[in-house]
Amino acid sequence: MKIAVLGAGTMGQGIAQVTAAAGFSTVVFDAQEGRAEAAKKGIAAQLEKLVAKGTTTADASALLLASIACEATIDAACK
Fold first, then answer.
1. C or N: which end of the chain has fewer Cβ atoms within 10 Å?
2. pTM over 0.90
3. Cα–Cα distance measured from residue 75 to residue 79, given in angstroms and rounded to the nearest whole number
4. Are 39 and 27 in contact (CB under 8 A)?
5. What one-character-per-residue DSSP string does 26-44 give?
6. Which residues have CB under 8 Å from 9's CB, separation 6+?
7. pLDDT tens, per residue, the chain with 79 residues
């Protein structure tokens, strides 16, 4: 199953991270250009903190990030 997160602000970023952590393929879209990619970078930064604390592993973090894609159009995100 694929989850599309429409909106990559603080809440969208958190939703994308949680859905990816739950094992779903996740697509992030935001109407503001570059915002989806910024959200993915924010998720990566959050995961780095969790790795540093020992809460997760670098491998698990990489798998989670790999399951998050960014799309430039709402149509592509919702396919």
1. N
2. yes
3. 6
4. no
5. EEEE-SSTTHHHHHHHHHH
6. 30, 35, 39
7. 999 999 999 999 999 999 999 999 999 999 999 999 999 999 999 999 999 999 999 999 999 999 999 999 999 999 8
